[in-house]
């Protein structure tokens, strides 16, 4: 049996002016596929997702969706009306279930309730009664617990999480996600990873989180040089096969170059006789020329920059205290930073990671204690809110305003343009205006402005958000050979594993631990630690339980428990009868509006009562009667 197609894209082309993003691109998505989309920033990842979600047009080609296909789309920068509450936002973006709930409400308010029986059957089929409960569960997993909070009071990260919950609740047939792990802490990312692996959703997503990509996706699509390449495996498999493709392309270019030289000589000989030569050979020459002149975009660039000299004294934190009202961030915290140290900082949102960084940078003062920074330290600070550019400037001007030439040491130097090329800005993009850059390209430009000042102490606050995987590889290689100190605050586990040599773990309430290793090693230790604690906890009740069983070999119900047990049986039967009566009445089509509303409200109350009493009945039934 063949795969069921969800959508088919045929020869789609999209350009902005003279910038072609993709040309005559074709691919299909079948039911159950889990596809990760990889491409450099500015080559059209988000644009392609917007096109598939119907948010953006395209120049030509066709897109065919399966009829009745439900699509859920998480945008990179979602928007909602500011006055909505968090819960209302989950009902705002119209989807099939939300529209059905609205249809039900309209029907309830209409005289005679036309079509109610059919709507109730559909409500049951779509599990629409559970929609609000499911919304609250997913929001709670994403650490959004104030359901009545207004959208206008949410941070950008909270808003993205509300939008993610909104997208997941409906369990669409096809889920399209643009950077779903941005603004998620490590716990949330791992929860989402597990959630997506458990479901049968068809998935197309863009993410820079390579562990997430590796564990969730079973196929990779790559846009490179306006073309689409598909790899039937996860991220690890893609890396291997992409290298094979690059090697094959490079040898094809080398072979074409040799042939091209021979053919060029032939084309130049006896031009007067060319008309008598075979026409096909002349046409073949031009095809050969295209291959020979190809520049395969191998972005494995080593940027070995010389950091400014850094002395032995870096910084010393001595007995730091910091709190905001009852929220404790630091309590008697002392630390001596050593030369060439590469520290990762992890912890859930709200545990004080960014506050700690800002204290180090002098932007926030400690309540007490001192921070002593060495005289030779030159900070390079990449922050979440540092993207302040003049949109009307050209990219090259932004960098040249800082320095025309960047010293690499050993007498080597790079021009501003060469430096930009290391970070994947083509000459065309360099002479383009800032306002034309994608979100990821702006982040990349900001990173260039931080690195080119030759800092010797880099502080990177969430550097991986909105950067593509190719840029991350360049940045990781740069940091691995960086002759200075590094502090990275990041939720990107893969990035942390490659760059840092130890972790500062913020557990909240001023509990900060130093872990000697990378994130994967920490995660392994944490799981073992939690398992040991669990075993210790479960062992204690077990000893008590066995001792109690020995003392009371034949534990029987007390008179009071026996009465409660019998009473529960009667109550559960009565509640079940009431529930059946309400369900029959709702389907009869004979109820008035008021009766319908009243009975609809009573159903979830009954379900909760039945669950609660059944649980107690089961507990009592385990005691010997």
Strand order of the largest sheet: 5-6-7-3-8-9
How far apart, in Å, are the first and last alpha carbons? 55 Å
Mean pLDDT: 82
Q: At the fourth CATH level, what is the homologous superfamily of the domain at 315-517?
A: P-loop containing nucleotide triphosphate hydrolases
Class by alpha and beta content? alpha/beta
List low-pLDDT spans: 296-302, 542-555
CATH top level assignment of the domain at 315-517:
Alpha Beta
Oligomer status: single chain
Which of globular, elongated, flat, extended, rod-shaped describes the shape?
Answer: globular
Notes on the protein architecture:
This protein is α/β, with parallel strands linked by helices and 625 residues long. Among the domains are: 78-170, no CATH class; 315-517, 3-Layer(aba) Sandwich (Rossmann fold); 559-621. The chain contains 20 helices and 20 strands. The strands form five sheets. It has a six-stranded mixed beta sheet, with helices on both faces. The protein has a six-stranded mixed beta sheet with strand order 14-17-18-12-19-20, with helices on both faces. It has a three-stranded antiparallel beta sheet with strand order 2-1-4, with no helix packed on it. A hairpin with a 2-residue loop joins strand 10 (315-324) and strand 11. Helix 9 (235-268) packs across helix 10. Residues 296-302 and 542-555 have low confidence and may be disordered.
């Amino acid at each position: 049996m063949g795969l069921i197609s969800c959508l088919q894209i045929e020869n789609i082309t999209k350009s902005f002016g003279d910038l072609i993003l993709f040309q005559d691109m074709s691919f299909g998505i079948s039911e159950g596929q889990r596809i990760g989309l990889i491409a450099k920033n500015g080559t059209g990842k988000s644009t392609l997702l917007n096109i598939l979600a119907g948010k953006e047009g395209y120049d030509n080609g066709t897109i065919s969706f399966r009829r009745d296909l439900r699509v859920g789309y998480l945008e990179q920068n979602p928007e909602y009306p500011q006055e909505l509450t968090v819960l209302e936002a989950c009902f705002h973006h119209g989807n099939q279930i939300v529209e059905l709930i609205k249809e039900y409400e309209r029907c309830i308010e209409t005289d005679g309730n036309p079509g109610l029986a059919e709507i109730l059957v559909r409500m049951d089929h779509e599990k629409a009664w559970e929609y609000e409960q499911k919304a609250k569960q997913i929001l709670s997993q994403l650490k959004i617990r104030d359901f009545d909070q207004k959208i206008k009071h949410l941070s950008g990260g909270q808003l993205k999480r509300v939008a993610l919950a909104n997208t997941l609740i409906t369990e669409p047939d096809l889920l399209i996600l643009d950077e779903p792990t941005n603004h998620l802490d490590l716990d949330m990312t791992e929860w989402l990873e597990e959630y997506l692996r458990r479901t049968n959703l068809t998935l197309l997503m863009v993410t820079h989180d390579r562990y997430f990509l590796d564990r969730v996706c079973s196929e990779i699509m790559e846009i490179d040089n306006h073309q689409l390449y598909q790899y039937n495996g996860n991220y690890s498999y893609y890396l291997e096969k992409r290298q094979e493709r690059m090697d094959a392309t490079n040898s094809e270019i080398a072979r074409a170059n040799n042939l091209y030289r021979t053919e060029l000589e032939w084309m130049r000989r006896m031009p007067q006789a060319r008309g008598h030569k075979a026409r096909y050979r002349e046409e073949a020459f031009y095809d050969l020329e295209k291959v020979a002149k190809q520049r395969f975009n191998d972005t494995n660039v080593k940027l070995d920059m010389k950091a400014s000299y850094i002395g032995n004294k870096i910084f010393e934190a001595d007995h730091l205290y910091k709190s905001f009202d009852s929220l404790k961030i630091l309590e008697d915290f002392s630390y001596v930073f050593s030369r060439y140290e590469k520290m990762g900082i992890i912890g859930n949102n709200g545990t004080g990671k960014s506050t700690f960084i800002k204290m180090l940078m002098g932007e926030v003062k400690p309540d007490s204690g001192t921070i002593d920074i060495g005289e030779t330290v030159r900070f390079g600070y990449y922050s979440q809110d540092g993207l302040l550019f003049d949109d009307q400037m050209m990219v090259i001007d932004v960098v040249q305003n800082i320095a025309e030439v960047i010293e690499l040491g050993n007498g080597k130097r790079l021009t501003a343009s060469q430096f930009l090329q290391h970070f994947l800005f083509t000459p065309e993009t360099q002479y383009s205006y800032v306002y034309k850059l994608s979100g990821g390209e702006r982040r990349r430009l900001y990173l260039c402005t931080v690195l080119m000042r030759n800092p010797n102490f880099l502080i990177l606050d969430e550097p991986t958000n909105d950067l593509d995987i190719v840029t991350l590889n360049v940045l990781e290689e740069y940091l691995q050979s960086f002759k200075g100190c590094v502090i990275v605050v990041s939720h990107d586990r893969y990035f942390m594993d490659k760059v840092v040599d130890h972790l500062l773990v913020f557990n909240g309430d001023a509990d900060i631990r130093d872990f000697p290793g990378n994130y994967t090693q920490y995660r392994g230790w944490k799981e073992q630690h939690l398992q040991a604690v669990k075993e210790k906890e479960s062992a204690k009740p077990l000893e008590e339980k066995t001792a109690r069983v020995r003392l009371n070999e034949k534990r029987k119900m007390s008179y009071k428990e026996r009465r409660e047990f019998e009473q529960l049986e009667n109550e559960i039967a009565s509640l079940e009868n009431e529930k059946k009566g309400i369900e029959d009445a709702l389907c009869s089509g004979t109820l008035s509006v008021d009766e319908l509303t009243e009975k609809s409200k009573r159903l979830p109350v009954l379900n909760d009562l039945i669950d609660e009493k059944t649980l107690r009945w089961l507990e009592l039934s385990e005691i010997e009667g």
